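Known limitations

Structure tokens in this collection are predictions and should be treated as such. Users comparing against experimental data should check residue numbering before alignment. To illustrate the layout, the record for Prephenate dehydratase is reproduced below. The input appears on top and the generated tokens appear beneath it.
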Amino acid sequence: MPRLAYLGPEGTFTEEALRLLDPTADRLPCANVSAALNAARSGDADGAVVPLENSIEGAITTTLDEFAWGEPLVINAELLLPVQFSLLARPGTEIPHIKRVYTHPAAITQCRAFVARELPDAVVVSAPSTAAAAQEVALPGSPYDAAIAARIAGEHYGLVELASGIGDRSDTVTRFVKVARPGPLPPATGSDRTTLVVFLADDHPGALLEMLTEFSVRGVNLTRIESRPTGDGIGRYFFHFDFEGHIADARVGDAIAGLHRICGEVRFLGSYPRADGLVPQIKRGTSDSDFAEAAEWLAKVRAGEI
Ligand SMILES: O=C(O)C(=O)C[C@]1(C(=O)O)C=C[C@@H](O)C=C1
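Generated tokens:
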């Protein structure tokens, strides 16, 4: 049975995602995303499950940066989890008395309208995770009056639910990924996604356009692009890409090789089945057989046969 590290403690959305991704895995709760990924890197765990992006908040930047800088890890699965938040408190607490709320920063963004409307005077403080917030609020001497977390976290830590479905939108989704140390890749399924981190060789006009061209001319559809600071000064950025297809697909492999030729460093973060099952539209001239036929034709031309 694999042992998977995750953002804990028990009752986080990440735990729910892990249970759905691998129901039989042993679970190793960790204090934060970095600790979960380090457990996978060191071998304390066989892999880890971490949040990557949210339909309201956007990218989880800690995860993006860990993937770019730490010892390499590779994504082998993803999951889209609808997230619903509840306001949880110790028994006897009433909403008008809530002055300090504790929750994960991603939940703060997603419940902004509810907090502004129902808790206008409350201070909202960042917690390492939604379940860590619920666990803390359950302590008798806690400085916090309420937590925003999943209902299940309230049940787990003995809190009462004062309000449910308090997210600004009812259709919020968080995308989670399962990662492991580099090894054999999941086979191509026809409905796959690939993730890369790319560092520029040097800063020059058109550098971003040149990268995008590698995808565009091969008909590779991007599903996420993010720039993140390298830390080397204002204006210094690296890039995170998600796109349709598997590195085993000719158009995808060719685009990645093209980036490798023109960029400073390309870090491959995995090709894995898409959670939404969508099958990409293959643009004319970019299928595997189109690439094979063109390579055959070129070989003949070079051999003087055409
Ligand atoms: O705190 C949790 O429960 C998490 O699993 C983390 C996390 C996130 O990082 O986005 C996951 C889903 C929700 O969007 C809020 C928080």
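For this record: The longest helix spans residues 288-302. The mean pLDDT is 97. Please report discrepancies through the issue tracker.
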